[in-house]
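User: Sequence recovery, please. Input:
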């Protein structure tokens, strides 16, 4: 009988978020080339992203290319970016890690972000093959993205999982761990090389209870937490 619940974040936990950004910028680059005959967006936008710029990358990259970033073209580019089918794959070791845990407990994903965007990521990774439930918080309504507890409560109820046997694995202490911590879940911050958000310490209740360098270390932590369950 499976009485444990293992829940994952998606972006930068199961796959490299940088790969999604590159994939999206590439599609936007192709769109601009065909739509406006404008070349070079991919290189410029990626450089801005790697410098840590956020929010106005489309606007500022178009300015660099001599294109007026009016609201109409920006809206078009955002729609292209969000709707594209991304070229992404799991972090190394993710499928094996997920498969192992699936032998001992229920598996689910909670992911924030625009619905079409997150659904395309889930499709590209074939998440439904691996996970029993995928919660897109965009479907839950305004105010229910993380750190709101609703998605976690829904999974607890669906799988009748007690808090002491529920685990959330994610990457971003800024929003990922507050709700499961307050619900009494175990929380593990997964650290991968090259994650988008720089690694820094957060205080409770934002910080995860454990930090793992990749999936192998995460599995060792889980074995120590559930010594009679995991082998």
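Assistant: Recovered sequence (231 residues):
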């Amino acid at each position: 009988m499976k009485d444990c619940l293992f829940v994952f974040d998606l972006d930068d936990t199961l796959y490299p978020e940088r790969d999604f950004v590159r994939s999206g910028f590439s599609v936007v680059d192709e769109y601009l080339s065909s739509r406006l005959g404008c070349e070079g967006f991919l290189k410029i936008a990626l450089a801005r992203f790697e410098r840590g710029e956020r929010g106005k990358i489309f606007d500022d990259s178009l300015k660099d290319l001599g294109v007026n970033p009016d609201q109409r073209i920006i809206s078009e580019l955002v729609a292209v970016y969000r709707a594209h089918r991304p070229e992404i794959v799991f972090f190394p070791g993710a499928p094996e890690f997920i498969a192992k845990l699936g032998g001992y407990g229920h598996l689910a994903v909670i992911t924030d972000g625009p619905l079409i965007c997150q659904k395309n990521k889930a499709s590209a990774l074939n998440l439904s093959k691996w996970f029993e439930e995928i919660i897109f918080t965009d479907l839950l309504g305004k105010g229910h993205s993380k750190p709101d507890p609703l998605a976690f409560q829904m999974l607890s109820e669906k799988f009748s999982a007690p808090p002491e046997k529920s685990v959330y694995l994610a990457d971003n202490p800024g929003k990922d761990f507050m709700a499961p911590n307050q619900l009494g879940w175990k929380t593990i911050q997964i650290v991968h090389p090259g994650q988008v958000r720089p690694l820094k310490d957060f205080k409770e209740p934002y910080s995860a209870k454990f930090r793992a360098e990749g999936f192998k270390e995460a599995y060792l932590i889980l074995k120590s937490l559930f010594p009679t369950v995991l082998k």
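Residues 150 and 194 are 30 Å apart (CA to CA).
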